[in-house]
From TrEMBL:
<dbReference type="InterPro" id="IPR039793">
    <property type="entry name" value="UROS/Hem4"/>
</dbReference>
<keyword id="KW-0456">Lyase</keyword>
<feature type="domain" description="Tetrapyrrole biosynthesis uroporphyrinogen III synthase">
    <location>
        <begin position="14"/>
        <end position="236"/>
    </location>
</feature>
<comment type="pathway">
    <text>Porphyrin-containing compound metabolism; protoporphyrin-IX biosynthesis; coproporphyrinogen-III from 5-aminolevulinate: step 3/4.</text>
</comment>
<dbReference type="InterPro" id="IPR003754">
    <property type="entry name" value="4pyrrol_synth_uPrphyn_synth"/>
</dbReference>
<comment type="similarity">
    <text>Belongs to the uroporphyrinogen-III synthase family.</text>
</comment>
<dbReference type="Pfam" id="PF02602">
    <property type="entry name" value="HEM4"/>
</dbReference>
<comment type="function">
    <text>Catalyzes cyclization of the linear tetrapyrrole, hydroxymethylbilane, to the macrocyclic uroporphyrinogen III.</text>
</comment>
<protein>
    <recommendedName>
        <fullName>Uroporphyrinogen-III synthase</fullName>
        <ecNumber>4.2.1.75</ecNumber>
    </recommendedName>
</protein>
<keyword id="KW-0627">Porphyrin biosynthesis</keyword>
<dbReference type="InterPro" id="IPR036108">
    <property type="entry name" value="4pyrrol_syn_uPrphyn_synt_sf"/>
</dbReference>
Length: 244
């Protein structure tokens, strides 16, 4: 198959390698760039004042861990949670065991038994410079004291959507690997409107039911839900569909 990889460059390169190993011919076009977040200098102090930490993405963990390593600091011995398996795996690479839900969404995280009784607990959420506030609002309603730490920031590269779409069509693009609602929206904004029917007919692999619902609402008709946002999960989902 000829899948489109739109993750930030480092993850895109790893995903493309895995895809080629399975006989696919991926096209890489990172739609998002990530850089260190402005809150990182305060991370160590925020961790020391937290009872539990929640990471909402792989990037949130990677940038935080890199900063701690660079400054000679370590993760404290407190409770850790991740929205999905990919983020939990990123924590594991840092030597941290984090709980994560089977349902890789904010709603799934909030349903975990360990997050029901949080009255008076100090919660630190590691994330980008924006995002959904459902986790913070819900935990605050349960009595938690919630703070954010923007460990990374998102930037969109300036791309020529018309030229890219023509190139993808010429290359026989037949599938899309999209790991977030944000990347889905970016792709839809990038591809010219007259080419949306072509785009909607590509096989679309997404990491969660929430993103699948967004895609269906946008007009996609061939949607596969992977077991999370990790590169391995995306490749497995594509392989499974290829064998059907």
């Amino acid at each position: 198959m000829v899948p489109l990889v739109v993750r930030p460059a480092a993850q895109a390169a790893e995903l493309a390698t895995l895809l080629r190993q399975q006989g696919h011919a991926p096209l890489c076009c990172p739609l998002l760039e990530t850089v260190a977040g402005g809150d990182l200098p305060r991370l160590a102090d925020m961790l020391q004042n937290a009872d539990l930490v929640i990471a909402v993405s792989v990037h949130a963990v990677h940038f935080a861990h890199h900063f701690l390593l660079q400054t000679g600091q370590t993760w404290p011995h407190i409770e850790y949670f991740a929205v999905g398996q990919a983020s939990a795996d990123a924590f594991a690479e840092a030597g941290i065991q984090a709980l994560c839900p089977d349902d890789p969404r904010s709603e799934g995280l909030l349903a975990l038994p360990d997050l029901q009784q949080v009255n008076g607990k100090r919660v630190l959420i590691l994330r980008g410079n924006d995002g959904r506030d459902l986790i913070a609002r819900t935990l605050a309603s349960r009595g938690a004291l919630v703070h954010y730490c923007a460990t990374y920031e998102r930037h969109y590269p300036d791309l020529d959507g018309d030229a890219l779409t023509r190139r993808w069509q010429a290359a026989g693009l037949d599938s899309l690997l999209i790991t977030s609602g944000e990347l889905l929206q970016r792709l839809l904004a990038l591809v010219p409107g007259p080419q949306h029917p072509w785009l909607h007919d590509r096989l679309l692999v997404v990491p969660s039911p929430r993103v699948a619902e967004m895609a269906e609402g946008a007009g996609f008709t061939r949607i596969v839900i992977a077991q999370g946002a990790s590169n391995q999960a995306l490749v497995a989902a594509l392989e499974l569909r290829k064998m059907e």
